[in-house]
Every structure is written in C-alpha cells, then in structure tokens.
Description:
The complex is a heterodimer. By secondary structure, chain A is an alpha/beta fold.
Amino acid sequence: MIADILNQHGQKLFQFQREDIVKLLTKRFGILAWDPGCGKTLGGLVFALGALSIGDCVPRVLVITPQDLIPQWFAEIGKFFGAEFAAEWFVVSGLEDAIQLVRLSRKVPKTYPLFAITWYEALRDAIGDERIVQRNDGELCPYCNRIIHHNGLCSYGCPFNGSPYISRRRDAAWFLKKFVRNGVLVVDEGTYIKSCESLRGIAARRLVTAKYRLIMTGTPIKNLLSDLPMLLQLAARPNSQAYPFPPEQEGINRFSKQFMVVERNLLNKRRRIGPEPTNLSTIQLLLSATVLRRRKDQLGEEIAPLEIKVHEVPLTYEQALWYRAWCDDELFERWFYATHNRSISDLAKLLSRMTHLLFVIGHPTSSTATGSPVSLDLLANLPQPTELTHKNLLVVDLAEQFARQEGYCVVFAQTVGVLETIGRMLRERGIPVHMTVEKRANKLQSLPPAKRSMVIQKFRHQGGVLLASISAMAHGHDFAFVPRAVIHSLPFAYDSYAQAICRVHRIVSPKPVEVHVVCASNSLDMYLFELLRRKEFAASSVLDNAMLEITISKDEWKKVWERVQESLDNLVVA
Amino acid sequence: MTGRWLRIIDSKQLAALQLIRSSKALVIGADELFEPCPFQPEEMFRLQDLGDDNAFEELKQLCNTLRVYPRVVFIDPFRNIHIEKANSLMPQLVVTIEFNNGLPHRNWTNRFAWLFGERIASITSAKDRYEFTIYTPLTLKKLLELKHQPDEFPVVIDLLLKRKTQPDLWITPDGKIRFAQDHARTWLFQKLDIEDLVYRLNSQNISVLATDRTKLVFLLRCIRSGLLRVSNEDLVKLVNLKNAAVIPAKAPLLPLSLRARFALLNDEDGALVDKSTNELVPVTVIPRTRVERTEVLMVNDDGSVKWALVERTHTELVAFLPEKYSPNHYFESDVFELAERFELPDVPTVEKVDRKRA
C-alpha cells in the first residue's frame, strides 16, 4: 500500500530500505542507524505508516526532530506522500499545542489517524511548579476536607489522594505521552538525547509509552560507547530482553562497567571507566537486537560517486609570519602568561596553539588568530593581517564557478568568521549568497535552528552559494540537489568532517558529487586533512560492523604537532 | 531344597535366596563359573553382551540418573575390574565365588563385605569345591519388600540393547520429530516424566520446538545428561533449532557478525560443529580479563599535571574445546581462525523469527 502511494508520486523505496523497515516493523522498535544520506527521514515515515497499516496500534504518530529539520520533514512528506498528507500533520510548538492535541485525540474516533511533529525544545515547554506538601496522618485534606489516613490517603476522587504533591510541573512531553500511548513514536537525530541528564532527553524518554518506537541517527556512537544506553532505553525499554539494564544513570553505569575498559590509577588507587570499548562480542550480540546499522557501501545500491579533491594553496607573507610566531615556544609562553597569568599543561598548550594556527590559515583577522585579549603583535614585531589570502580567493573562485555551472554550491567552514568576507566577495561577483551565520554580540555565529531552516529553504528555491558552519550543519540537512561543496577550513573532529560530506553525498544524489578541500601546503591544515582521511579509512574498514569510536588520540595530536614544527622552514609562501 | 540346606537357612537367608530365584540377574565376568551354583536365578544376562566399556559407562550413568540399580548381581571375582564394575552399579544383592572351602574367613574375603554389605550365606558347591557367597546391604524387611516390587533393571538392559539399533528420538527427512515407542522407551519416558511432552511432540514438525524454547532446552538437557539418546546429526539439528528459538525482541535485525556469533557460545549448551567431521563439539566459554599497564596524563586539583601509571582491565570471552583439539582454546579475537575449522552457532534475523508479522 505504501509502495503504491510512493509510486503515485513518482517515488520508490530502495530494496535495503524496504527490507530494513520490514525488520523494524516486525520488531516494533529499533535504532535506525543508516549512514547519513541514506534516506532515514523517508524510513521514519514509512515505519510510521507501516505500523498504522499493520493495525495493532493506536493510530497516533508523533515525530520528534531538531527544530531546523521540521521544514525538511514537511518537504519529504510532501515529496513522497503528497501535499494533502503533509497538510494533515500538526506541529506541536509547545505546551499549549500538546494539550490541544491530547484533547483532539480524545475527541476524534480511535480509528482516525492523527499525525504530529515536534522538536526537542518544545517537549520541555512546561507550566507550574513542583510543590510538595506535608500531609500528616490525622490532619484534614485542604481540598476534600476529609481526614488523612495513612500514606496521604484521604478520599477517593480527591486529586491529592495519596499524593505528596500539591502541584506539579508538567511539560509538553507529559501530555504527549498520553497522545502517543500505544501509538507510534519516531525520533530523528537520536544523539540529541544521549545524555541521561539533559532535560530534552528526560522529556523524550517519557514517550516510551508508544508501542512502535524508532530512533534514527547516522552516528549512534558519537564519541563513546556510553552514548548508547539512553537511546537503547527509549527504543527497547529498560530491564527488557533487548536492554537488560535499569533506567537512567544506573543503566549507563552498569552498561559502562560491562562494556567499557575499567581504568585503575595506581597512584591514587581510584577506578574510572575508560573510553575504550571491551567485551566486544557480547556488546555486538546485544546491539544486534536493537541497532540496525548500514554503511553506504553495505546498501547494495548504486549511489552517485563521491570525489574528494584537494587544492593546496600557499600562505601569504603575513600569514607565514603569524604562523611561525604562534609556533615559537618562548613567545607563546609569554603571550599565555600575559593573557591567563597561569601555567598551561602540555596537551592544552598544543591544542591551543593548533587552534590559533588554524585561524591564522583560515581567518587571519579574527581575534583567535591574533590573540585575545592581548594581541600577539604586542609581544613581537608582526605585520597587520588581511583576509585577502590565497585560500579565501580560491574558495571564492571555486564557489563562483560551481554556482554558475551547477546552480548550487555549499561552502563549509570551521572558522565561521571568514564566511562574511567570502559572502561579500561572492556578492560582488553577482552570485546569490545564503548565510547560515549572523552577527550577534559583535561576533559571527550560527543562526538559530528556525532561521537556519528558512535560509536553507530559500537556498533550495533560489540557488547560489550557501555559506555554513561545518559543525552547525552536522545533522539532518539534505543537500542532495547540491553536487559541489567546498570545505574552507577543517574541524578537529572526524565526525563533523564526515557529516559535512554526507550532507551533499546522499543516496538520492542525482549527479556525481565533488567535495573540494582547500588546504595550505606544508602546514597544519594539510596534516589535519591527512589525519582525517586516515580516520575515514579506519571508519570504513572497521571489522564486523563494530561501531567503534573514531576519535583522535593524544598521541596522534602530538605527532601532528611534531610535523608542524618540523615543516616550519618548508612553508609555501607566495 | 534338601534337608542339609534347611539346616543352615535362617529367615534372611531364605529371603535372599527367594529373591535370587525370582530375579533376572546380571552376570559380570564368566557366567560358566555359576553353572554349578545350587540357587539359580530366573534368568541371567551377561554384561559383556551389552558391548564395550562405553556401554557399561552408559549403563552406569543410566542407573545413577534413573536410580534403578541391579537387584541381583553374580560376580566372577577373578578379576578386580569385575568387582569394581559391580560396585559402581550399587547392586542390592551380590553372589560371588570364594575358595575358603570351610575355613575361617581370611582377610581378603572381608573386602566383599566392605563393598557389598553383610555376608549372609555361603553355600558350597558339590562340584569343584566352590563356595557361593551372598552379600547384601539390605535388611530382612527390605529384602522381603523388594521381592514384591517390580524389577526395573531388566528394562534398563533392554533399553541399552534397543538403543543400539534405534535412538530414543530422531528427526525424519521431512522434518518431523519421532520418539521410539517400544516398551523400554515407553518405560524411560514414564520414568523421566516426559510422557506428556513425548505425546505432544511425537510426529510434529520440528519448527514447533523452534517456537517453544523451554521444551527444546529441556530436551537438549536430557540428551546432554545421557537420559535420551539421539544421533549426532539430529543433535546438530536440535542445537541449531535452539539458536533459532529466539524471541523477536532478542532476534538480530541484521545477520550476526562472527564476533556476535562467538558470544552465542556463552551458553550452557554452547557447541560448535566441526566442519571436517560434522560432529558436535561441546564448548565451555568463560570471560577472561586482561590487564594492560600504561601511563596517562593526570591533572591534579591545583591544575598541575603529571604522568600516572594506570591498569586497564579489558574483558574478552574465551572458548574452551575438548582436549583432543589443538589449539583447544580460542579468544574472541581469534574468531576468524575458529570459524575456519568450526561452524559457529547462529540465530535467524527478526523477520525469520516472526514470519507472521513480517
């Protein structure tokens, strides 16, 4: 039936999508962890509609997604199932909407399907205060005026009968759990709720009352194996066959003790849970019941090829001087003492200097590149930096060329401040520019999610160049229509780099995708890129589908730093 | 009985002799030695007719687990092994040969009394001057009671003989489970209190067991403890069926990786199938910890840093195979080598477990 609806709109499910959704519907819960760009949003929609068509649940569907992805969800619903169906969805933007939805759900017949979509922050929208009252035995109940017997019991029907609270704080999730009870819950970008302490995670986990529960994420383990328990708890329910651990923090503790390395410090005799996973065969068996992971090369489908091209550019004379200055140990120590007035650990020193160097390469006029609050040129004779670098010029040239050839181009940058300059230069050349950053408090920052999604919609309709922060665009966005991307500056984390590429390289990408990475020769830029490529290789060659973390170790950072220092004399300057 | 016999017999001796006369006795050793014995049992069956030492071990195991012991045993004492075998079967009454020829008891004859109980009668053979001596640990009352109870030991013997030609249960080529229905097997199923299970499962498709894990585990436990006999091929099928009998909540979404299949061995019935012989190899899996020493950067409360020695405890599973295999243990990281020689257990994916919903 669903396939027929999709056919009516000229769409179809891939074989792997069809098979995997059938598996998840058979199980009634799961974590869908296809690689980014493999159609998770469509998978979530088909899961929800499939559950309704099976007919063993209440026809109430709730989708939770990051706020900036709501327009994308509607675009996909319209694209795959028609605009009429998209118009049936309710958007729950807070507590009032949630209450209205629950009321509506009670009024309409049980067989009439209701569809709602909300975002994480809306789940936390709350009213009232937690007020505890002492209801001593023998006293009169202030509400029903009956004598309180034991354990706060007064009279049947009294709202305070047996309750230690006179009033409670209720959030939207508290009402939505009634809406979704025995219904269908789809959670997009599940890593948002990986922490047991975050309020949005606590709110989302209340919705475990749903009969069909699907969590979708491209990176089920973002950093550590301990990211998983809270996702498993919502998907499989605590103390169940598929997740035999107690709920919340206790569950994380026990899970970590079983599946992560225990580190005992011989100096202070303290024990702690280390980041490394262990007991791998048992964890793989446990996760096989809940997590459905597929990498792009395991789909069994032809996808548009991806080519990553590297452009090496020289540094300007000014950049090279600043670069070498930050590498000078003595000068750095003086600068750090002048700005922080304390000593610094080896690793912090190394990472701090690498950050300064990346900004010197990517955004030389920024305060991070020059040093703040004390500028480095106050301690050494350094020239005035400028944004007219070879890197920026090449990025502008490439973006202009791609926008003219293909109609669309995305420029990702870690040093977001430079996007203003790049945007200005592109506008001067007559290219439409869409910025996902704005100036706030004298600083260029990523737009809030709602505004960001509007900018992306405009970019989709108008074409041109989208300028985006590499880390802010890490989740959910679908740029399958963009065949060219330029990475101006690289992040320190592998997953941000990989996610950025996955925004444009998707299973539905109609054309071959090219990602152009612009790096300064023989500099930290180049070494960081090489390190990220090595991580990419490690990620794709992990055996047995083991979802191991692809983090960069301290030793790797030290090696990169050694290379930076060794190559100071070989910097390419023009 | 002759007058000479009557002179020597008291009531316990009489009860013992009556028990012997009315029983089917097991003969351990040369039965021709007992031909001149003046008190012959109803029937004699020879231990060597059962087969080699494996058959004896099986008999011993059955006796111990079913708590059915031989009522009367005739022992040829000329080899110690016969006495040891008889002792391990815990007989209720033993007849053996001595050469005392009327002399007072010698020390070595006391050994029988230690092993088999009180020496209640010693009757001289007219020929060859043997003495046939009867030992029993039972009281007179017990002896009298025993005479009126049905003797189950011959059925055990019958069961062992029947098993040589047909196992207790087997799987037919069309995938049905069949239980043998002869007298010995019927008695066995009754003794094991599985008549109901046998009635329900007999001639059923084996996929019934795949959906009823409790019954399957019970059946496998009976097979493993030697109570039920099944051919190796069918045992492999049943073990695979056990892996298939997972509930949908625990069934994997995608085919299991080799490592995850290694973790399936961590089960009381964990077993591999030898790819060369197709034989089922029982495996014991235990978690092993490995301690690795390394240095980490430690930040003190005052912000200073120093290198500290730490011990990191890793956990991994180790599978132990029977000693005849070399190597006879594999770590989970060696799963690829293990998979080259043995077929690892596997479980079906969720859509195969719950075909109806899929």
